[in-house]
Design goal:
Blueprint (H helix, E strand, L loop, with lengths): L1 H27 L10 E9 L2 E3 L4 E3 L5 E7 L4 E6 L14 E2 L2 E8 L2 E11 L5 E14 L3 E12 L6 E11 L4
Antiparallel strand pairs: 1-4, 1-11, 2-3, 2-11, 4-5, 5-7, 6-8, 7-8, 8-9, 9-10, 10-11
Length: 175
């Protein structure tokens, strides 16, 4: 009986280590049902009208659009969307935009994120920054909802414009 004790004990230890590593990897990826933000999300965005900062409405908001948002471990954030992108001069802002880069962190019962998109005139000239601030909550395990504000600051000193809106999304899964 003793000759089987060491191999069985070894197999039990290996199985325990593998189980712990798998559980930790799932938690790190936000797949543990805990409501973690880390991961890539397919987000539906509904924007409100566009206003001059502290002034009148100047345009209707765009129709609802899709955003891909990645919240990475360590607090970095990357996004791209179907409305304000590299070829979006037909959008409500008539500007092309870079992908958004920024940061996120937990805050009480939700998460906050801030990111910036560089904006370009159809000529290719860099003309403005779009700064976005989001507050999102997670409905475990795989739903996201929240709100955002947008401020566009023009490099030539023209009046800033702003908007806001709502977000809802679902965590992207590896199939």
């Amino acid at each position: 009986m003793k000759k089987y004790y060491v191999p069985v004990l070894f197999l039990v230890l290996v199985a325990a280590v593998l189980l712990i590593r798998t559980t930790r990897a799932r938690a790190d990826n936000g797949d543990d049902g805990s409501g973690r933000l880390i991961g890539t999300w397919v987000v539906n965005v509904t924007a409100n009208p566009i206003f001059l900062r502290n002034g009148p409405q100047i345009a209707n908001g765009p129709p609802p659009f899709v955003e891909l948002a990645t919240y990475a471990a360590g607090g970095t954030f990357t996004e791209t969307n179907s409305e304000l992108n590299f070829n979006s001069s037909g959008s409500a802002l008539h500007l092309n935009g870079s992908d958004g880069l920024g940061a996120w962190e937990p805050e009480r019962a939700h998460f906050k994120a801030t990111f910036r998109k560089l904006l370009f005139a159809p000529t290719g000239d860099y003309v403005a920054n779009a700064d976005l601030h989001e507050q999102v909550t997670i409905d475990p395990p795989n739903r996201l909802s929240g709100a955002f504000t947008l401020t566009v600051t023009f490099l030539n000193g023209s009046s800033s414009i702003c908007s806001s809106g709502m977000l809802s999304g679902e965590r992207m899964k590896a199939d």
